[in-house]
């Protein structure tokens, strides 16, 4: 089962062995046996996988560039998580938490995260961070009145709106998108140096809404990662949108019960 089928909660850490969500701090879920609940309701064997890691599995096996066997998928939406793929197999870790880059530190004295850490990546680079930073920037620049005059409630501005404004040349929006993307680029450089992937795929509604976000993150990654590694790593956006989660989750379930070899 993909998290797609239970909504869009930014679930942090999943245990695949028992299908228990160990911690989803933003939603207050701790040790919730989602797999057991679903099995009781449906009578079907159930597996649980984080939505971003499921989407990455689909990109890894059916995406546009199948020549890459060692890849990283990074989903940037309401939260941030990655999937790590070696020989097109998802690296889960013993508790299913491999790839929780959204809760890695990119700003030591940054804001307090619900996970208990300070300066987590997703607090500075995900969709809600872009929205909050844009509101703050608008207020500080005294542009609030122009929004009100146009009948726009600044509190309702979404990350996609900020990305669209940046694509249309809004200087304040451009600054906000670049700042968020810079933080992601730092995390990408660290991942690149650690795993030396052939490709990094960016998915989720933020990269899909902003080429500026993707280009800025890639530029920062190349500046900060070891050059011999970064120069040969391809960065691209995801091929699949929402269907990718279901496709990847089905693959994940097959992996658990049927041994398949890919390519
Ligand atoms: Zn955190």
TrEMBL record:
InterPro entries: ATPase_NBD, ROK. SUPFAM superfamilies: Actin-like ATPase domain (SSF53067). Transmembrane segments: none annotated. Pfam families: ROK. Belongs to the ROK (NagC/XylR) family. This is ROK family protein. It comes from Paenibacillus piri. The lineage of its organism: Bacteria, Bacillati, Bacillota, Bacilli, Bacillales.
């Amino acid at each position: 089962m993909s998290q797609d089928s239970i909504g869009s909660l930014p679930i942090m850490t999943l245990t695949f062995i028992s299908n228990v969500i160990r911690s989803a701090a933003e939603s207050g879920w701790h040790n919730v046996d989602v797999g057991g609940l679903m099995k009781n309701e449906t009578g079907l064997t159930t597996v649980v996988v984080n939505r971003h890691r499921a989407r990455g599995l689909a990109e890894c096996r059916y995406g546009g560039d199948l020549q890459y066997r060692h890849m990283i998928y990074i989903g940037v939406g309401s939260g941030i998580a990655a999937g790590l793929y070696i020989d097109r197999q998802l690296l889960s870790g013993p508790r299913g938490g491999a790839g929780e880059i959204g809760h890695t530190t990119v700003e030591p004295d940054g804001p307090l995260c619900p996970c208990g850490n300070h300066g987590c990546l997703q607090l500075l680079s995900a969709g809600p961070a872009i929205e909050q930073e844009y509101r703050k920037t608008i207020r500080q620049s005294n542009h609030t009145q122009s929004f009100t005059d146009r009948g726009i409630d600044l509190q309702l501005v979404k990350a996609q709106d900020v990305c669209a404004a940046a694509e249309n040349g809004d200087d304040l929006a451009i600054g906000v998108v670049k700042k968020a993307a810079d933080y992601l680029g730092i995390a990408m450089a660290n991942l690149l140096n650690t795993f030396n992937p052939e490709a990094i795929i960016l998915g989720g509604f933020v990269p899909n809404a902003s080429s500026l976000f993707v280009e800025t993150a890639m530029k920062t990654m190349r500046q900060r990662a070891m050059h011999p590694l970064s120069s040969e790593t391809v960065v691209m956006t995801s091929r699949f949108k929402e269907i990718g989660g279901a496709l990847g989750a089905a693959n994940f379930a097959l992996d658990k019960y049927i041994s398949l070899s890919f390519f």
